[in-house]
Specification:
The chain has about 1050 residues and is an alpha+beta fold. The protein contains 37 helices and 26 strands.
Length: about 1050
């Protein structure tokens, strides 16, 4: 079958036939008859404009044309065809069964080719080719959907190229510390072989290179694992649904399930899931993604019902109104190449905690290098008096340099490793509790959060709406007695609900369901009896929606139906219907009574929706496309009260956040009475604390007044999206770290502005989801305190490991420095320190990463964002431990032979090394609690911590007793092992006593930061002075050379003149 559509432009061109490959033209009578029928179908004098524009009529018109033209080709009896030049032939591939190629559809939409669209018969012609009913959609059958996927592809983007393990090795090798150790190890290996032959000389340098190799493997493995965990969790986070029409029913499906030919229903907050053509649009406004190519230069595009052939590109956001579209391209064919590239090469910026760790690490590295440089100079000077030859001096110096570097500079980087492991573990645990982390920085930043702004609907409440009250005239109507009221009022109420409602919104669904069940509303019959001329969609700013219709039975009667927030609709009304259906004027007293009714319903936590009606004269509707819905003179029909219960556990969750020092503020579009009732019920608004304010009042404050009052506000009602954004901006300017939790599209702007955006995932929209950092998959507000708890646990675990690691590094560095000058030997060799870094510290990273959060974390105030990572509490714990370990190591190094009454030099070395490692085992236990005196509290719950502690001890025993050649150690007997354990365990009581030492409020590290700034300034000045001095010396040297050259020249001239 071939679909041939004749265009006006082509009809003007002469027909050309090919003798071997042509159509056999049907008889002139058949052709003229078919053309005559098509002319009748398009004759404006015969059919009305409404009938001509009716989608069903267009569908059958083009179906008839396709049938006639297809019959012509069938009668021709030819297998190969060369199309007329006066017709556009859409070749149909036999296996697909559709009348148009995907390349044509992609070209049509991406290039916005209106000429091609006209040649193809417009939207109706394409619908025929795609076998889509524009009213009923495609068939909801597996075979039809699979056939479309096979022909046009699935709506899935290819996964970005996954980074393999090898790609993480290269960055790990380029670490400056690794490169320095590789160079030093290579020099040590070469000199050792040269001095002591390969059998003995490879040990020091070779062991260093082997250790560095394993450090690179550990770093690359941790990076690879962390990247895999994050990508897997992020992949699971995309679960957005969209409305489609299939087999005549509207249903929700996941975005990847969309196929070409689907009729998609778009609403405010949706993101267009594929390329397509507009079928119907009302007050549609689109926000164009600037990353999408071939779009208009404007950020917003407005479409209406008359713009029937508008093109829609995938990725565009619906910011207002609603529409339906015919999908023409999906998946890769609906994405531009640069968008795929952007997704595949998303740059990962440093998170705030990563940046702070990197800065702290760079400071310590700089101090370590300067310290090592000074020591090397001193050692080099002392080496001149040892009597060793040149190579031996260099060899000893290199080993000393490596030992000192290993004392202060750690490979693999333990802080970075700790952050990766802790964060990956926290993300996996949160996923199990239905919280998805989409932005890595959010899990770190939430530790600093001081305020959380929450939306009411869908966040505090369950978003399960139900109509519970109806007010008609002057009184409430009892349930079950709705139809006993005046028929004309009930009929208007039914029409207002059926015509002025869209599916997909919980509030709309609740009203529609109530009207069908309790008012016996026949939605389809009402819609068939009315023509919809103009729609003003609901928006968060106006808080109402309106529709202009015309009854088919009375073409001269135009009606406006208004629906929205009760107080907004009431302000536009001048009349009302009483329960008997009598039309009455709405005076001031009656309006006050209605306002009291609305306030009473709102105080019962009900959302109040009012319905109004007005008849419009025909002269006011001259041009349907330009008509504006009247904003006054409306007649109030009735008011419904909709209940939306609070989520279970929301009161306890709010209390947990408040106990954690987090201010909870509720921001909602509901009126002030409903907002106050809900806030009181869930504990946000407490007696004699907090202020309740309306959005318009907050908006009209001066900037100074807003900054003064923003902390006191607990509830902001009747707020618009701009009010929410303004609230977040004011809080941030006052120094707060702000989180915002919500699901509706009206939260997206404020969510982008907030430091942490929390998306309540069940009822949310894609625009809001994209603005969020954390997704609560089940939409349960009780999950938010868990996210806060894990964020604080992450920060606390990093601090615990930093305390542990700094104690280890400082003890080794000071012991090596002092021991070097006291005994001309390093207390701990480079190989021993490398063992501690690779085994002890790496396993300790995993132990601290798996520490679970405790309730005590939610009893502390948020950490100040400017507070240093190393606190006074940590310094108080570090210093006593470091001093004890240094004293222990030096005593064993200096007097070890006399203490153990032995002439074996290896025994004190082994005892020193083993005691140092076991000190770190007990130091690991001591660092579990930063403030609590009982460091063994709940240690049995972290079985991995206990296992890792045992593994470290076992590995140390294996190294000393079995692999002594590698560790350069000597075997220890049971009493010696007991002494090692005893002196190492003494770190526990030292840590317990240290926790009684009082600490100052002012952070000591902040003074060190001042010293660092001063040092950098001094270094910059010194560098500039040295640069200036070198330039002066260079100029002086050059002048001397020039003077000497001139003197020689003069001498030659004098000699020449004498001769």
């Amino acid at each position: 079958m071939t679909l041939i559509i004749k265009s006006k432009k082509q009809a003007e061109q002469p027909d050309h036939l090919s003798t071997s490959n042509s159509f056999k033209i049907m008889s002139t009578s058949l052709e003229s008859e078919s053309e005559r029928i098509l002319e009748l179908l398009n004759d404006e004098s015969i059919t009305s404009k409404k009938v001509r524009n009716n989608p069903i009529m267009k569908y059958w018109r083009f179906a008839f044309a396709a049938s006639v033209l297809g019959f012509r080709a069938q009668q021709s009896g030819t297998k190969t065809m060369c199309p007329y030049s006066s017709y556009s032939a859409l070749n149909i591939e036999a296996e697909s069964g559709f009348g148009i190629k995907q390349t044509v559809l992609s070209q049509l939409v991406e290039e916005k080719d209106e000429v091609l669209l006209e040649e193809l018969g417009g939207v109706d012609g394409i619908a025929v080719a795609l076998r889509t009913d524009l009213v009923r959609g495609i068939h909801d059958e597996v075979e039809d959907i699979d056939r479309r996927r096979k022909a046009f592809g699935a709506n899935i983007l290819p996964n970005p190229p996954k980074k393999g393990f090898v790609q993480f090795l290269w960055p790990a090798m380029l670490d400056i510390n690794v490169l320095i150790l590789i160079i030093c190890g290579s020099v040590s290996l070469g000199l050792g072989i040269e001095l002591y032959r390969p059998k003995e000389g490879w040990k020091d340098g070779g062991s260093i290179l082997i250790g560095v190799f394993f450090a690179i493997i550990v770093t690359a493995t941790s990076d690879y694992w962390h990247n895999s965990v994050f990508e897997k969790l992020l992949k699971d986070s995309y679960n957005i649904q969209i409305d489609v029409v299939r087999s005549g029913s509207r249903q929700q499906i996941l975005v990847p399930e969309i196929v070409v030919g689907d009729v998609v229903c778009l609403k405010h907050g949706d993101k267009i899931p594929a390329h397509g053509l507009v079928l119907e649009a009302h007050s549609l406004k689109l926000q164009v993604d600037k990353a999408i190519g071939k779009q208009d230069h404007s950020d917003h595009v407005e479409l209406n019902l008359t713009n029937r052939n508008a093109f829609l590109l995938s990725g565009t956001k619906v910011v207002d109104g609603f529409a339906s579209m015919l999908v023409t391209s999906v998946g890769v064919r609906a994405r531009c190449d640069h968008m795929i590239s952007r997704i595949g090469h998303n740059s990962r910026k440093l998170t705030p905690l990563q940046a702070r760790l990197k800065k702290l690490d760079s400071v310590i590295d700089m101090v370590g290098y300067v310290f090592t440089f000074v020591v090397v100079i001193l050692v080099t000077l002392l080496a001149n008096f040892t009597g060793k030859d040149g190579l031996a001096k260099i060899y000893d110096t290199v080993n000393i340099v490596v030992g000192l570097i290993m004392s202060i500079l750690n490979i693999p980087n333990p802080w970075w490793l700790s952050l990766l492991l802790t964060r990956a573990y926290a993300m996996k645990k949160l996923k199990a509790e239905n919280a998805m982390v989409r932005q890595l920085s959010a899990l770190e930043t939430i530790n600093f959060a001081t305020t959380i702004c929450v939306n009411k609907t869908g966040t505090i409440t369950m978003n399960q709406m139900k109509v519970t009250k109806l007010w008609l005239g002057k009184d409430f109507v009892a349930q079950g007695a709705y139809l006993s009221n005046a028929p004309n009022v009930i009929k208007l109420l039914q029409e207002g609900i059926a015509l002025n409602s869209i599916t997909g919104c919980p509030t709309e669904e609740a009203v529609l369901s109530w009207a069908v069940q309790d008012l016996d509303m026949n939605t389809e019959e009402i819609k068939r009896s009315h023509d919809i001329l103009h729609i003003e969609a609901f928006s968060s700013e106006s808080k109402k929606s309106a529709i202009l219709t015309k009854r088919k039975a009375h073409y001269e009667i135009y009606e406006v139906h208004l629906k929205g927030a009760a107080e907004s609709v009431l302000a536009m009304c001048t009349h009302y219907y009483d329960a008997s259906g009598i039309f009455k004027a709405l005076d001031h007293n009656q309006k006050m009574k209605f306002e009291q009714v609305i306030q009473g319903m709102a105080a019962s936590s009900l959302r109040c929706i009012a319905f109004a009606h007005k008849e419009v004269e025909a002269k006011e509707v001259q041009d349907v496309d330009k008509v504006e819905v009247p904003k006054d003179g409306m007649t109030l029909i009735g008011i419904v009260g909709i209940s939306d219960p609070c989520r279970p556990g929301v009161t306890d969750a709010v209390k947990d956040l408040q106990n954690a020092g987090v201010n909870v503020k509720m921001i909602t579009g509901d009126n002030i009475f409903a907002a106050k009732a809900i806030a009181t019920e869930c504990g946000i608004l407490r007696p004699y604390s907090g202020e309740v304010i309306e959005g318009v009042k907050f908006r009209n404050y001066t900037p100074e007044e807003r900054m003064k009052k923003v902390d006191e506000i607990c509830v902001m009602a009747s707020s618009s999206p701009s009010d929410k954004l303004l609230m977040v901006q004011c809080l941030k300017r006052k120094g707060h770290v702000v989180a915002l939790a919500g699901s509706g599209t009206n939260n997206s702007l404020a969510m982008k502005e907030a430091d942490i955006g929390v998306f309540m995932g069940i009822q949310g929209t894609e625009v809001t989801d994209e603005s969020s950092d954390i997704v609560i998959l089940d939409g349960n507000f009780a999950s938010i305190p868990k996210v806060f708890m894990w964020g604080r646990c992450l920060y606390s675990s990093i601090q615990k490991f930093i305390q542990y690691q700094l104690t280890t590094s400082f003890a080794g560095l000071i012991a090596n420095f002092v021991g070097l000058f006291l005994s001309q030997e390093l207390t701990l060799t480079a190989l021993q320190l490398l063992w501690v870094h690779l085994i002890t510290e790496t396993l300790a990273c995993l132990a601290f990463a798996t520490e679970k959060p405790t309730k005590e974390l939610m009893k502390k105030p948020p950490v100040c964002k400017t507070e240093p990572l190393i606190t006074n509490i940590m310094l108080r714990n570090i210093l006593p431990q470091t001093l004890y370990q240094v004293a222990l190591l030096l005593v064993i190094q200096i007097d070890g032979a006399s203490i153990f009454s032995t002439d074996d030099d290896m025994l004190p070395v082994t005892f020193t090394f083993t005691s140092y490692v076991l000190c770190q085992v007990f130091n690991q236990v001591n660092a579990r609690k930063l403030e609590t005196k009982n460091v063994f509290e709940k240690i049995h719950r972290n079985k991995l911590f206990l296992v890792i502690t045992a593994v470290i001890i076992i590995l140390q025993i294996l190294l000393v007793e079995i692999l002594k050649m590698i560790g350069d150690t000597e075997k220890l007997n049971w009493p010696e092992w007991g002494i090692c354990v005893g002196v190492a365990a003494f770190t526990l009581p030292i840590g317990w006593v240290a926790r009684f030492i009082p600490i100052p409020d002012k952070q000591v590290v902040s003074y060190l930061m001042v010293v660092e700034v001063f040092g950098r300034l001094l270094l910059r000045k010194l560098t500039s002075m040295l640069t200036w001095a070198s330039q002066v010396l260079y100029v002086m040297h050059r002048n001397q050379q020039l003077t000497a050259f001139l003197a020689i020249t003069d001498r030659h001239r004098q000699c020449a003149s004498l001769s």
